[in-house]
Specification:
The chain is mostly helical and 71 residues long. The protein contains three helices and no strands. The relative contact order is 0.18. Keywords: Membrane, Transmembrane, Transmembrane helix.
């Protein structure tokens, strides 16, 4: 079982990657001024979900599990 550390690191990396990609693409979304149910919200949530899933999967493969023995 992976620790909360992996989840926390995944969230931090996801935040940075999503911000960078959104800035490079010129994507801006302000939830309080633009509302929730619109296309920008869906794009924002989809990008978060896709990036988080990829980062979490990679971290699970790359970081050793606690209590695991090498060999």
């Amino acid at each position: 079982m992976h620790s909360k550390r992996t989840t926390f690191i995944s969230l931090l990396i996801t935040y940075v990657l999503v911000k960078v990609v959104h800035n490079l693409a010129g994507f801006e979304y302000a939830i309080f001024s633009e509302g929730i149910l619109n296309l920008k919200f869906l794009v924002d949530m989809a990008s978060w979900a896709i990036v988080y899933a990829a980062v979490y999967f990679l971290l699970r493969k790359l970081l050793p599990q606690r209590g695991a023995t090498a060999g």
